[in-house]
């Protein structure tokens, strides 16, 4: 019995010594204060939650005309529309206060178009568009920090300025609340690194991919 205990004790000492040596040889965490990043998302948030193109003023203008056929076309459902959208693109600066907490300031862009056509002859009736610029302040919390691998969560608040097409006498600009929640993000690399995030909000829905530089 004593022999087995001595063997177990010797194995424990060897494992402890090996672990201590590995910790001594492991490169210490290198905190870089500044980061610049750029990322894109294939499913923009404003598009996901629905564009507000202020259609009613345009339709009312057509309804008011006695000889305009658009009112009957809309009521009969004889039109169709096509939507076009850019991806969502974001440029961001991040300051790392500690290896756990960081604040980011970003600017995002998304553009969308909505075109209405008459089914009978495919004639274009309306063409509406908006371009959204969204500054946002984001708090990031890193819960895994390794030499090349980091994982984090973040939440951001801001606002969005929409530059609308004024051809149809709609409001030229609009301002709306913006938010983004990222439950899981992962970055791989040291100075230059790539990252991927999964989130939901007015910047993107689903996921995004990006590249960044820290110094």
Structure description:
The chain is elongated, with a radius of gyration of 27 Å. 21% of the residues are buried. Helix content is 20%, strand content 54%. It has an eight-stranded antiparallel beta barrel. By secondary structure, it is an alpha+beta fold. It has one domain: Porin (Beta Barrel). It has helices at 2-25, 45-49, 55-63, 70-75, and strands at residues 34-41, 79-85, 88-96, 101-118, 124-145, 149-164, 173-189, 192-201, 206-214. Mean pLDDT is 80; it is low at 59-67.
Concise overview:
This protein has 215 residues and is of the alpha+beta class. Helix content is 20%, strand content 54%.
Mean pLDDT: 80
H/E series: HEHHHEEEEEEEE
Report strand %. over 45%
Q: How is the largest sheet built, in terms of strand order?
A: 1-3-4-5-6-7-8-9
What gyration radius follows from the Cα positions, in whole Å? 27 Å
Biggest sheet, open or closed, and with what strands and sense? 8 strands, antiparallel, barrel
How many structural domains in the coordinates? 1
């Amino acid at each position: 019995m004593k022999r087995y205990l001595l063997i177990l004790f010797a194995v424990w000492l060897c494992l402890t010594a090996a672990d201590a040596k590995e910790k001594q040889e492991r490169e210490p965490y290198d905190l870089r204060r500044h980061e610049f990043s750029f990322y894109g998302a294939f499913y923009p948030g404003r598009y996901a939650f629905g564009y507000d193109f202020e259609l009613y003023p345009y339709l009312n203008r057509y309804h008011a005309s006695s000889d305009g056929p658009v009112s009957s076309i809309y009521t009969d459902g004889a039109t169709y529309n096509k939507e076009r959208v850019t991806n969502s693109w974001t440029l961001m600066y991040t300051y790392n206060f500690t290896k756990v907490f960081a604040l980011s300031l970003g600017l995002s862009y998304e553009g969308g178009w909505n075109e209405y056509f008459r089914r009978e002859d495919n004639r274009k009736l309306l063409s509406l568009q908006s371009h959204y610029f969204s500054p946002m302040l984001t708090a990031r919390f890193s819960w895994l920090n390794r030499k090349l691998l980091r994982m984090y969560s973040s939440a951001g608040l801001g606002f969005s300025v929409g530059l609308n097409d004024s051809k149809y006498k709609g409001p030229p600009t609009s301002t709306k609340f913006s938010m983004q929640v990222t439950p899981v993000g992962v970055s791989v690399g040291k100075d230059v690194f790539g990252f991927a995030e999964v989130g939901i909000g007015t910047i993107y829905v689903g996921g995004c991919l990006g590249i960044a530089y820290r110094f």
